[in-house]
């Protein structure tokens, strides 16, 4: 106890961050996809992008799957999707948190695009006693990059249409508008849209997503500087 309010102390986990998408049917668990994450790092760890499937060697992938399957058994998960987040530390994977839902940030869509697994439909089929729908992957790999301007006043936005027709692009969503004042990136809600891409491999999907994101050109004035200074990104 420190002062009038309780304080929770937790161990700090270092290492790359991943999420795991799983689906359970009447207590039988399946790891469908491991997602590799790109974040701002300490202290906010705001997610700037994801790519699937994660680039992991066989040993690390097996350790992650073992951890998740044991966790699902421990919590008594029966039927439905679970989105788990972890770090791959020097001592192996360590769980951060988990929710009984599909992954946000279009992770559910990337998972379905690459694996063919529609976790919600498969859950409903399991609950209704129906056979699983066929899994039909639409691309070998996928990646997403978020628009993440911060501490600027937006003057003009260009290139959104161009980005939408770039190679590999599945969808571009952009909420940037002239006159917006954008503060620091404090959470996922601070971001301004995304570029979702498919690719022939993970590196290809990442490169296409980043190239399309960079086509969205933002003329802006830093909020901390004078109005005569502009920044294009």
Describe what you observe in this structure.
The protein has 233 residues and is an alpha+beta fold. The protein has two domains: 17-128, D-amino Acid Aminotransferase, Chain A, domain 1; 141-232, Aldehyde oxidase/xanthine dehydrogenase, a/b hammerhead (Aldehyde Oxidoreductase, domain 3), CATH 3.90.1170.50. Helices cover 24% and strands 35% of the residues. The chain has helices spanning 58-74, 107-115, 119-128, 160-164, 202-215, and strands at residues 17-25, 28-39, 47-52, 80-89, 92-99, 141-146, 152-158, 169-174, 181-182, 193-199, 217-222, 231-232. The strands form two sheets. The chain has an eight-stranded antiparallel β-sheet with strand order 5-4-1-2-3-6-10-8, sandwiched between helices. Strands 9-7-11-12 form a four-stranded antiparallel β-sheet, with no helix packed on it. 30% of the residues are buried. The model is unreliable at 226-233 (pLDDT under 50).
């Amino acid at each position: 106890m420190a002062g009038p309010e309780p304080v929770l102390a937790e161990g700090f986990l270092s290492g790359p961050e991943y999420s795991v998408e799983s689906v359970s049917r009447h207590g039988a668990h399946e790891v469908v996809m491991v997602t590799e994450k790109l974040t701002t790092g300490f202290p906010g760890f705001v997610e700037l992008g994801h790519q699937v499937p994660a680039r992991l060697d066989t040993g690390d992938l097996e350790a992650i799957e073992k951890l998740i399957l044991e966790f699902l058994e421990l919590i008594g998960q029966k039927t439905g999707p679970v989105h788990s987040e972890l770090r791959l530390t020097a001592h192996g994977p360590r769980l951060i948190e988990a929710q009984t839902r599909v992954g946000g940030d279009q992770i559910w869509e990337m998972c379905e695009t690459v694996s063919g697994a529609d976790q919600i439909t498969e859950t409903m089929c399991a609950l209704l006693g129906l056979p699983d729908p066929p899994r039909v992957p639409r691309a070998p790999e996928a990646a997403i990059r978020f628009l993440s301007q911060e501490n600027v006043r937006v003057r003009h936005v260009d290139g959104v249409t161009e980005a939408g027709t770039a190679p590999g692009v599945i969808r571009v969503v952009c909420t940037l508008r002239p006159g917006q004042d954008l503060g620091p990136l404090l959470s996922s809600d601070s971001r301004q849209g995304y570029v979702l891409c498919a690719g022939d491999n993970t590196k290809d999907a990442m490169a296409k997503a980043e190239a399309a994101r960079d086509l969205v050109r933002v003329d802006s004035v830093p909020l901390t500087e004078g109005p005569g200074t502009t920044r294009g990104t």
